[in-house]
Specification:
Number of domains: 1
Structural class: alpha/beta
Order of helices and strands: EHEHEHEHEHEHHEEH
CATH architecture: 3-Layer(aba) Sandwich
Number of strands: 8
Shape: globular
Amino acid sequence: MNKVIVVTGATDGIGRVCAHSFAKNQDELILVGRNADKLAALVYSLQTTGAVVHSYIADLSSAKETFLLSETIRKNHPKIDVLLNNAGAYFDQHTLTKEGLESTFALNHLNYFVLTLGLLPSLKKAGEARIVNVASRAHMGVSLDFNDLLGAKDYSGWKQYQRSKLMNIYFSYELAERLNQTKITVNCLHPGFVKTKFGQNNEGLAKILLTFAQNVFAISEDKGAETSIFLATDPSLTSVSGKYFVKKKITKSSDESYEISARRNLWAYTEDLLKHKFSFKFPGF
């Protein structure tokens, strides 16, 4: 049966590969991207396959835009089978979004949280639905400082990126537990070190080093997308939830990622931030 699948970060890298794979299955696609021209080109290429494709332009580093996006998608698509949270980036220098939040935290963590909770009513209406969060093995070796989650002190782009990927895993595990009485599964994954445009938003040495590493060590985009596609579509995973996958296999994430108090503190911190800074109310949760 054809599925309705949301893909964020759809215009480049893993997201684009996933979109093409889903289109070949004749799934109905809801694609989210920031660049209008890239998104239009992708939609055109996918429509030639006969797939039904919808597109939405949004800056997912903006909590307000992400929240409004979730409302629009929910209104236009009352039933969603799969949400693939794929959009993310690495920021070598400390930068703030237009809402005054640290960019890595806003895009890599807050985006997943806001969009997912906003789309839960549509996911629930699908019956058996899946939430797939692209994390990274980069989460290994770090913990969260709840006195400085926004990276205001002694900013390190790499450390902040690592922590954001740990946040993705905490979010996945906590949401899976909160949805354990439903037929919605939540899983996360490490895609591998993939040769994409990751890090090209930076300048100077960071861009040079990332480009070199990708040219020498990285796997292809097609290979990097395999686990995301597997988690989104494989029938064997209907009842598998709250797991971390590497190369399509359940794998142990870092010891820190299983700290229940830390993951619940992150959820509470995020809820409190969204409530007091943005006054968001999420339906049906």
